[in-house]
Amino acid sequence: MDLLWSTCVGLGLSAACGFRIFLPMLAMGLAANTGHLTLAQDWMWVASPLAMVSFGVATICEIGAYYFPWVDNLLDTIATPTAVVAGVIATSSVIGDASPMLTWTVAVIGGGGSAAVVQVGTGLARQASTLTTGGLANPILSTLELMGAALMSLMAMLLPFVAVGMLCVLAFVAYRIFRRLRRGRLTAAAT
Questions:
Q1: Residues 111, 91 contacting (CB under 8 angstroms)
Q2: DSSP label at 96?
Q3: Residue 138's CB: how many other CB atoms inside 10 A?
Q4: CA atoms of 180 and 124, how far apart (whole Å)
Q5: Which pTM was predicted?
Q6: Where is 65: in which H helix or E strand?
Q7: Do 129 and 141 meet the contact criterion of CB atoms below 8 Å apart?
């Protein structure tokens, strides 16, 4: 049960990394420092004072930068691969008592995949918002993403099974958006 629990915590935190990269890492460090989250031995540095300050500053900068239209689109191109790496780190840092093969398999496929699905979904939503509103609605989207990162981080640590359920819903929504956009492009190309 511990392995399943910690895997769900990791997947939930990874999904939160798809919304914002540094907020879930900051939440992990805070939770580890207060005894609400146990990190794997090799990942204790996430809760170190230097890491906490670094994650705090990076979180503030990331949140602020996403409120500037067009800058947020540029950040999405950088954030996609970075979110995958952060998702792998988030998952591997909470799976403690498993073999390295299992830990890294779950971290790379599950953690990186969770972060990628959410990040691609938010990136598509931001592109649609930029194209339809000229970027005027992007700050609203940024606020929703911030709330998603905070809520998913919290849910991952308190109710990890619910967080994984939320991840499944997000994956389904991202799939539907992708399908709709693809169908629209195919229809436009046929005319």
A1: yes
A2: -
A3: 23
A4: 11
A5: 0.86
A6: helix 49-65
A7: yes
Distance CA 145, CA 122 (A): 8
Q: How many CB atoms lie within 10 A of CB 30?
A: 17
Structure-token match 């090799």, residue found: 42
CB 142 within 8 Å of CB 135: no
pLDDT in tens, 99-119: 889 999 999 999 999 999 899
Which H/E stretch holds residue 152?
A: helix 138-158
Q: Which two tokens stand for residue 119?
A: 């990040």
pLDDT at 85 over 90: yes
Cα 115 vs. chain centroid, distance in angstroms? Answer: 5
Question: Using CA atoms, how far apart are residues 56 and 48, in angstroms rounded to an integer?
Answer: 12
Q: Residue 129 has which token pair?
A: 């918002």
Q: What ranges do the domains of the chain cover?
A: 2-185
In order of 41, 73, 97, 150, 189, the CA distances from 27 in angstroms are: 18, 25, 22, 8, 45
Confidence of residue 190 (pLDDT cuts 50, 70, 90): low
DSSP-derived letter for residue 98 is S
Q: Which two tokens stand for residue 3?
A: 């392995």
For residue 116, with 0-12 CB atoms within 10 Å meaning exposed, 13-18 middle and 19 or more buried, which class applies?
buried
Q: Is 67 helix (H, G, I), strand (E, B) or coil?
A: coil
**C-alpha dihedral (134, 136, 139, 142), degrees to nearest 10:** -30
